[in-house]
């Protein structure tokens, strides 16, 4: 059946894109000093924007040499 293979292809694309997005987000969170699993939040609409703002403006635990934002 043509419909079944179309759905399988659809899910493969979603999986590929999720992997391409989650892995870098996971690594960014780890390098900033936060748990890597926060990178999974990148898959949730609107939460992903909040995650980017949080990482951009929060004091990173891994960056001990920098003065706090103020």
List the keywords.
70 residues; mainly alpha; 0% strand
Write a brief structural summary:
The chain has 70 residues and is mainly α. It has 2 helices and no strands. The protein has a domain of 43 residues.
* Low-pLDDT residue spans: none
Dominant shape: elongated
Distance between the termini: 61 Å
> What radius of gyration results from the CA coordinates?
17 Å
Number of strands: 0
The overall pLDDT average reads: 86
Beta strand %: under 5%
Total helix count?
A: 2
Supply the helix-strand structural class. mainly alpha
User: What is the element string, with H for helices and E for strands?
Assistant: HH
Main beta-sheet annotation: none
Q: What level of helicity do the residues show? A: 55-70%
Structure description:
By secondary structure, the protein is an all-alpha fold. The protein has a domain at 15-57. Helices cover 60% and strands 0% of the residues. The chain contains 2 helices and no strands. The chain has helices at residues 2-32, 47-57. It is elongated and about 55 Å long. The protein starts with a helix and ends in a 13-residue tail after the last helix. The model has no long low-confidence stretch (mean pLDDT 86).
Topology:
Elements: H1 2-32, H2 47-57
